[in-house]
Amino acid sequence: MTKQLSNTNILKIKKVETLIGNTPLYPIQNIFRKKNVKIYAKLEWQQLGNSVKARPAFNIIKEALLNGDLKDDKILLDASSGNTGIAYGAIGAALGVKVKLVLPENASEARKKILRALGVDLIFSSRFESTDGAQILAKEILAENPERYYYADQYSNENNWKAHYNTTAREIWNQTGGRVTHFVAGLGTTGTFVGTSRGLLEQNPDLINVALQPDNPMHGLEGWKHLETAIIPPIYDKAVPKQFAEVSTEESLAFLPEIARKEGLLVSPSAAANLLGAIRVAESIDEGVIVTTFADDASKYEHL
Question: Which of 28, 29, 58, 288 could pair with 181 in a Cys bridge, judged by C-beta atoms 3.0 to 4.6 Å apart?
Fold first, then answer.
């Protein structure tokens, strides 16, 4: 209920909202070419928070503020592999929301430095348990002092996938003039894939959406989940994907320099993995418009 917020705070939310989404759709022109087939990528780091996670992070915070769950005396608590945490930190700073995160201890040093610079209180979970372990530890912290925190729980929060349903899908549809035939994206919290797919399928029920996964449990694609061996996020809907494909960490890392040289983009390993998945789809069809997401750029990584 907006009456719980001052007009000043509501104005702040509206101003921050103008910095979320509306990212450019980049045409892949040199690294892959095929007659009657086009690949496009959403450059998701071009928004406040510097990644695709800006969309759900903002939507989660906005709705929690508006409905009174995130009051002035509460701290936003969540588990993150890094990108959602950075988005929470940036958006939280802009809106005056304190943030505490549980992060796997093997997250990149660049991410840790960014989070600390944004004033985020960091707690580290085991490097061997990925984000699953971070979620378990976050829930333990919440249980110890439930009145102190608003637990955002991005893996269960419906405002995660709804952010993509309401923004990413609409942008892709409009930017392609309704010509998109395939949507390809990796599974992490699954919010990007589920929300965008639902929105696009409403516009075109014949659209083919392809869910990407790492090819083994011990992968190195930060933020991605190998669903067969991980805790499946409650927001995931197994009825949404029409196709699945696997991508290897090693192939994704090896692909990074080529993307830089041929497309002029310094991207993250997960972006490279998404492009690999999109190219495989492109190789299997005779015509179509394929869209994927580049979650973030290379600034938080040391692979190039």
Answer: 288
